[in-house]
Amino acid sequence: MTRHPTAIDDESLIAALRLASGSDPVPARVTAAARAAFGLRLPGATTARPVATPAPRGVRSAEEPRLLRFTAAELTVELEITSLDGLVDLAGQVSPCPEAGALVEIRTPHLTESRALSPAGQFAVTGLPPGWFSVVCHRPGDSPVVTSWTRIRP
Asked: Domain of life, per the record (predicted)?
């Protein structure tokens, strides 16, 4: 039995040729999203990668706080994430505690919240929208340490 290729109409052929030639314009929303993502980078920052954290003993409910840990060569950022009424609260600790004057930024694609670290290296932010976030630790005299982007779901 002989198979015949499916006929292609003119519009589909022209669309395929445009895509192949690269002359189809990139949608404005795609360009805007790419520029926004590029603006969130921190040249020279050290990236802290996620590390597995064991579940706390005795946890019975999915409503318990979510624990995350990120490490870079010399710094650990621990986060506790809780959700309430569709918003996210974030409590964290940087260790070893950087010297006085250190601060953290909790970044989302749409807002940034800055907090000074307590003497024990702790910080908290409440009322964040769910979605993508990253934490940046700025230390006097050192390059910043930034966690990889993580998605928070309520």
From this structure: Bacteria
